[in-house]
Design goal:
seven-stranded mixed sheet; 15 helices; alpha/beta; single chain; Aldehyde Dehydrogenase, Chain A, domain 1; six-stranded mixed sheet
Length: 500
């Protein structure tokens, strides 16, 4: 039961769900934690307790994995026709669209993001992912091979589901990250144990209800809530899990890899970033200003691919910095359910202190504030103003480390550095994304080729689609999300040769 009154701006359906007694989804049933423990979920706009959810521990992880194991080894999900699996995923997409505003309200309450953004981005993109993957269920095929071994043979490959998949998702896009993970794994015929982020479990628990309504067989999808140490760690190390897919920080990703060594389970990782945005002097300045501002300030900067390093040619440096600073100062920072909100709070007190700490660190090392700063002007909640820093150098923490907040470092470069700018942009342990701002096709193609990043946007940033693969080079991860490419995360290839 909720411990405070729900924001009066939310619908009655959302209020009823938040105030309900929340349960995990294991083996087709909604259940409490075996220990009976719960933990609080906080509203980042106020810092107050919003509701409580079950605290899963090893016993609950074992129950969920056992259910997924039975469902894979004996249950109907991997044995259904591909079109039957596709129909269930398609039904989930329809239910998400039906409850679009409810899910947007949950995301705003739980994560802090503006309701207006969640209803036109997070929820529709999640529905698109389920619909797109529903179409792939009937298109997972093998190949035939004319082999040269002496004799007469028929050789071909089968693409088969990898088995029981553990998935751990972050708090920055709770519903969308669940869709990115669950949809392709289920489309491939795997069974899933999904661990939700402890900060933002509500939309994932509601999604489990939609799967139940859509006719998901027991055990094919299991959804648990808990902390990394109590639930995530035993899930990652579990010997009955065949594959783990994780989205989150690079630091935790390395722990996931270590945990997977016990039974050498397959691993895919979508990790951190420190993405460069490079503005050349021939760029359309107004377009580049708006685009690079959106690159860092979208979703409060809590994006793994946020354009947090802004390299600007010296001829237009002052103009672009001034423009991005004006955008930053004009952004309305307010609770996500406020109709005027353009940027909500950070997700938690821990994240707030981390981001403010980075700003203060930059100032202590000699950076200057062109806009924003650590003081939000909002009386309560985890709010940080959109911040533009200048006067940084490559050795500063704010330039090297992922801040995961609305903070950008603006750096000039000259004509003499046109070749060197690629080296500077690539001077990072990360390689998730980048953007290039130019009207020169030669520069666009050459710089795109030279950037060591899994995604390069030209004259845009943060463009996502279910059909486009997304993932990183270097310490930004292993494997890809979305598109046909993501199915490789969840399929094994079997070669069959028959002597004729």
């Amino acid at each position: 039961m909720a411990t405070i009154a729900i924001d009066p701006r939310v619908s009655s359906g959302t209020a009823d769900f938040v105030a309900s007694s929340h349960k995990m989804f294991i083996d087709g049933r909604f259940v409490a934690a075996a220990s009976g423990k719960t933990f609080p979920v906080y509203n980042p706009a106020t810092g107050e307790v919003l509701t409580h959810v079950p605290e899963a521990e090893s016993e609950d992880v074992n129950r969920a994995v056992a259910a997924a194991r039975r469902a894979f080894d004996e249950g109907p999900w991997p044995r259904m026709s591909a079109s039957e699996r596709g129909r269930i995923l398609w039904r989930v997409s329809e239910l998400l669209e039906k409850h679009n505003d409810e899910f947007a309200e949950l995301e705003s309450l739980d994560n802090g993001k503006p309701f207006s953004v969640a209803r036109i981005a997070d929820v529709p993109l999640a529905a698109d992912m389920f619909r797109y993957m529903a179409g792939w269920t009937t298109k997972i095929t093998g190949r035939t091979f004319p082999i040269s071994f002496p004799g007469d043979f028929h050789s071909y490959t089968l693409r088969e589901p990898i088995g029981v998949v553990a998935q751990i998702i972050p708090w920055n896009f709770p519903l969308l990250m669940a869709a990115w993970k669950v949809a392709p794994a289920l489309a491939a015929g795997c069974t899933v144990v999904l661990k939700l982020a402890e900060q933002t479990p509500l939309s994932g628990l509601r999604l489990a209800q939609l799967f139940d309504e859509a006719g998901m067989p027991p055990g094919a999808l299991n959804v648990i809530t808990g902390f990394g140490e109590g639930a995530g760690a035993p899930l990652a190390a579990h010997d009955d899990v065949d594959k783990i897919a994780f989205t989150g920080s690079t630091e935790v990703g390395k722990l996931i890899v270590k945990a997977a060594t016990g039974n050498l389970k397959k691993v895919s990782l979508e990790l951190g970033g420190k993405s460069p945005a490079i503005v050349f002097p021939d760029a359309r300045i107004d377009h580049a200003i708006q685009g690079t501002a959106s690159a860092i300030f979208f979703n409060h900067g809590q994006c793994c691919c946020a354009g947090s390093r802004l390299y600007i040619h010296e001829k237009i440096f002052d103009q672009v910095v001034e423009g991005v600073s004006h955008v930053a100062e004009d952004i309305k920072v307010a609770p996500g359910l406020d109709p005027s909100s353009q940027m909500g709070p950070l997700v938690s007190d821990e994240q707030y202190k981390k981001v403010v700490g980075y700003i203060e660190s930059g100032l202590a090392e000699g950076a200057h504030i062109a806009a924003g700063g650590p003081v939000s002007g909002v009386e309560r909640g985890y709010f940080v103003r959109p911040t533009v820093l200048t006067g940084t150098n490559p050795k500063m923490k704010v330039v090297q480390e992922e801040i995961f907040g609305p903070v950008v470092c603006a750096v000039p470069f000259s004509d003499k550095e046109l070749d060197a700018i690629l080296k500077r942009a690539n001077d990072s342990i990360y390689g998730l994304a980048a953007s290039v701002w130019t009207d020169n096709l030669t520069i666009a193609h050459k710089v795109s080729r030279g950037l060591r990043a899994g995604t390069v946007w030209v004259n845009c940033h943060n463009v996502f689609d279910a059909a486009l693969p997304f993932g990183g080079y270097k310490q930004s991860g292993w494997g890809r999300e979305m598109g046909e490419e993501v199915l490789n995360n969840y399929l094994e290839t079997k070669a069959v040769t028959i002597a004729l």
